[in-house]
């Protein structure tokens, strides 16, 4: 059989494959940049460089860790767990009882505690319960409530700024459905229609299911579960004066949060409060009550800033300018929020603030641990490279990337 004749190309050539003629056109220019022959610095990890790196890292981490730890130990604070106040504290007869020592945690200087043994918070803190009429600030409603009165000593002056937090544990604000359970337009003040709210992410707290069928404002589980204990200013029993602390929006909440809220355009007749807000609005949004002013309600704004962990603090009051003098203080708490139903606890916390915030020793400890590891490796490499197994190093100039290129060699 005769061999098949090769088909000619379009240009009349006998071979349609013109790669040989196209190759010079497609080849990149013979430059150092296009042919990747540019000189570049590459790190050669010599023993001296390794030791230097770990020395610098150890110095940075140990120094910063020591500074963070020092700041944490300069914080002065007191925390009192009042979860069982209504159950365990004496009621009505003016008798005070000592708060269990395990409920009180404090960090004050040992010299202050030694100089004022009668101001030891663990030994001298007391509580009792009173029942009297209370006016809720955000609704204007006056109703009889149980008040947990906590008396505690401060053995040394707390320099400004002084912050007042409440602390909750075992409360999961980071649950997926919980996080989405609100309506942003409603919070901005829009009168979102009943049809839109019904079956939205606010469900099951979207509409009143007790007969009226009205829109819940603000809807959703987040608003309904808001922490609604209220606190008085700390009262100095020696001087008979309040240590005044601000709870205004912008002081205890971020200024930008106000932009997420606005005065509602709902009619009072079209909305009802969330079920758990019954203490402040027992008869709903009637004409003799105030509608919730979400734009200026800092406690509500802080609550809507959801915590990432089930153990969290939220700011309720703050004094940026005046120191809190040593002495005996009293705080009155309108106890509305029941944490025992989910096996949780609640506490009040008074604390000073440093450049790194409230007391937290763990960042400093973590930096010290990392710095210690770097220091141990540094010592090991010094001993290994220079004492135990010293050896002559190769000359880096003989490495391939430090050699002149082939083109340069040919030209010479």
UniProtKB/TrEMBL annotation:
It comes from the Eukaryota. It holds the Pfam family CDC50. Its main location: membrane. The chain crosses the membrane at residues 49-73, 361-388. It is a multi-pass membrane protein. Keywords: Membrane, Transmembrane, Transmembrane helix. GO terms for biological process: phospholipid translocation. One of its GO terms (cellular component) is Golgi apparatus. It is found in: Membrane. Residues 1-33 are annotated as: Disordered. Belongs to the CDC50/LEM3 family. This is Ligand-effect modulator 3 family. It comes from Neurospora tetraspora. The lineage of its organism: Eukaryota, Fungi, Dikarya, Ascomycota, Pezizomycotina.
